[in-house]
TrEMBL record:
Origin organism lineage: Archaea, Methanobacteriati, Methanobacteriota, Stenosarchaea group, Methanomicrobia
Originating organism: Methanococcoides methylutens MM1
Listed InterPro entries: Methan_mark_5
Protein's name according to its UniProt entry: Methanogenesis marker protein 5
Amino acid sequence: MAKVIIYPTNSLILSDMVERFGHEPLAMMEKIREKITTVGVDSPPLNITPEGPKHGLKYAAVEVPAGVRGRMSIIGPLIDLAEAAIIVGDASISFGCMGCARTNELTKFLIREKDIPVLEIQYPHTEEEGKSFVYNIAEFLKALPEGGDEE
């Protein structure tokens, strides 16, 4: 089973596809759940601690806005764990809006710089493109080591 980071990192569709093919999706939803259910952290939206932006310094310089560092304190460790990646470009907001252009660019840059298999694919806008989109992702996931739907 490969650990696959998805972009947008909060896409339920990509997360589900990765899981269906026997891999572990590295997505923001699980990390956010951990943050908001951890004892000692105030309930949402007060779910940030002073440590979050400090951890983000590993991925973004001190000069960048604290929001970028805060997001990178969650996304950066996912990138570190990744053994493969799927990046969807030009995605609809309903596919998984990331909300911060600078974090988006930094996330994609760090994924591309890592020496792992990366599938970069454009978001589909027609039914034919949608079929091709799903097929290409399925083939990528099947080709990953120790995983895929081998039936």
